[in-house]
What we know:
Structural class: mainly alpha
Number of helices: 10
Order of helices and strands: HHHEEHHHHHHH
Low-confidence stretches: 218-230
Strand content: under 5%
CATH class of the largest domain: Mainly Alpha
Shape: globular
Amino acid sequence: MDELSQATQTYREIKRRIVELEYRLGERLSETRLASELGVGRSPVRSALAQLRSEGWVAISPQSGTFVKALTNRDIEEVTELRIVLEMHATRVAAERITQKDISALQVAFDTLGPSIVAGRSELFIDLDKQLHQTIYKVADNELIFNILKNLHDKVQWIRRACSVSLDRVQDGFHEIESIFKAIERRDGDAAAERMRRHIENAAAFCRAIAPEARATQPKNSLDVATGVP
């Protein structure tokens, strides 16, 4: 594997671990440790950390080293504002263009995953939410919006995982995306877009209400652990 490919793969793996909270918010990331864990040299690690810093995933202090960036209320606000503008538009368009095949696939997903989500399976909620949003992006058929939202997706998942520690919020979130789907199914674009706005704002409000020092302090599947769901 050439050096560029190794640096790219190293970047992707470190980013995945950050997004999935294998590396916790505020956790120190030394080049030596990362190189050992990933089985690579320090050069691709250094390149990966530089890219992650430019994208806002890590912070580097000359005195203290490299850390996973803390999740601030400003991060939440910036992501929320961009999502509302783009996703309301995409949802409205998707309600007009969605095919019966897409509707049927989403209905199967809601029927299959819904009961487990209501019981507290937070990771299944993330999977279902991702499927709904990706279907909306695809059906809206705007390549520029699709690419922006696709690039934003990792940040959205990181924020959600850092804050998804409440059974009530997962259940509320499920009912919100179900109502979005039902409006799309009826081809009511205005209702679907408005429900998408409320869903995004509710998720942001929930996360803002959690003290920054309390975010992502529990295990990765903290909600599943806390509720005793297998």
